[in-house]
Backbone:
């Protein structure tokens, strides 16, 4: 029986399974173990820390714990950093940890040291788990790990996880779904790309795959796509693109589970709260420890390839998407802008995307609305 179980795990990728289980542990607010050779650490997200967990960590860490933070958060603390770093935690001081990791106006209170491979793997695991990139890490012995009941993943497997997920991407379901303004439409569901989350290719009309196909990569936006939020133009982009494709020879709209530029829905809401306090979209993400864009689009290119698409006319304002598809071997014959309706709530957001992330948004259009003073 055990031999059969070993074979099943090997066929499914035992290292991949271990990473997926570790992701689930962090998302559930529980610690996980990360190993590199003979060195082990226990890691837990700061957002999961409470007084009881802090007390247990205090007993375990024996003064050797550290708080690992990414470069954007360290810059917000007043440090000129382009790489992640760590603060020593001689005590598991919950108030101090919360201040350094989360408080808007906090400043660094001690020297910051470089991080090692295990710490980098912990930050990558946090990114995959869609939790805040702020982690308490403590070294543990193999004996303790063996009796702790905690799940363990290899650092190398964590770094390789996304690349392997792209390779494992597969179609798990498809069906016709008529849409308003695009009735001849088929939804094709893929699993993989970002963990085991589902991604959707929406084939509109009957695009001729022997010619360049109209394509849009659209990251999920619950607030804009479903509820019509005025803070962005995502809902307009989604529906306008579908209608355009239906009226112009068809196309493929990839609906990608990458809420909040890859930060996840909960972190998007945290960023929205900061925006309500005056931060722009990118500064809000930096306060939380995120770079300007956490997304990857390699799996989107793989979805297109599995659908038989080789040459595209991409509908986007984001040069990163254009470069990603081209880098994945697709032939980009043209790119086309997709701008939704401007309003008092989203015009600053669009200006920030243009000015700080290089999005191809017409300055005259924003100026005409009154958002930018030339």
Residues:
């Amino acid at each position: 029986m055990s031999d059969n179980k070993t074979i099943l795990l090997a066929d499914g990728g035992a290292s991949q399974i271990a990473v997926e289980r570790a992701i689930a542990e962090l998302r559930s607010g529980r610690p996980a173990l990360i190993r590199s050779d003979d060195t082990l650490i226990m890691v837990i997200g700061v957002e999961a820390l409470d007084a009881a967990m802090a007390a247990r960590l205090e007993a375990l860490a024996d003064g050797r714990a550290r708080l690992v933070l990414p470069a954007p958060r360290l810059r917000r603390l007043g440090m000129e950093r382009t790489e992640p770093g760590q603060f020593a935690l001689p005590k598991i001081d919950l108030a101090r940890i919360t201040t350094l990791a989360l408080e808007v106006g906090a400043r660094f209170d001690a020297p910051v040291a470089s991080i090692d491979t295990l710490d980098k793997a912990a930050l990558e695991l946090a990114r995959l788990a869609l939790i805040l990139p702020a982690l308490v890490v403590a070294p543990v012995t193999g004996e303790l790990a063996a009796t702790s009941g905690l799940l363990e993943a290899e650092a190398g497997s964590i770094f390789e996880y996304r690349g392997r997920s792209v390779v494992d991407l597969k179609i798990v379901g498809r069906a016709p779904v008529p849409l308003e303004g695009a009735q001849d439409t088929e939804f094709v569901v893929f699993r993989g790309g970002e963990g085991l989350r589902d991604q959707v290719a929406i084939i509109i009309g009957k695009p001729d795959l022997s010619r360049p196909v109209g394509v849009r990569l659209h990251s999920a936006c619950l607030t804009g796509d479903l509820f019509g939020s005025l803070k962005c133009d995502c809902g307009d982009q989604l529906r306008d693109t579908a209608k355009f494709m239906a009226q112009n020879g068809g196309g493929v709209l990839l609906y990608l589970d990458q809420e909040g530029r890859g930060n996840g829905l909960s972190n998007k809401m945290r960023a929205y709260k900061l925006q309500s306090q005056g931060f722009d979209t990118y500064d809000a993400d930096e306060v939380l420890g995120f770079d300007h864009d956490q997304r990857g689009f390699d799996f989107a290119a793989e979805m297109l390839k599995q659908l038989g698409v080789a040459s595209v006319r991409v509908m986007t304002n984001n040069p990163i998407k254009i470069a990603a598809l081209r880098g994945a071997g697709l032939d980009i014959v043209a790119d086309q802008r997709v701008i939704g309706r401007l309003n008092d709530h989203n015009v600053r957001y669009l200006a920030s995307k243009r000015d700080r992330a290089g999005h191809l948004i017409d300055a005259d259009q924003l100026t005409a609305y009154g958002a930018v003073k030339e």
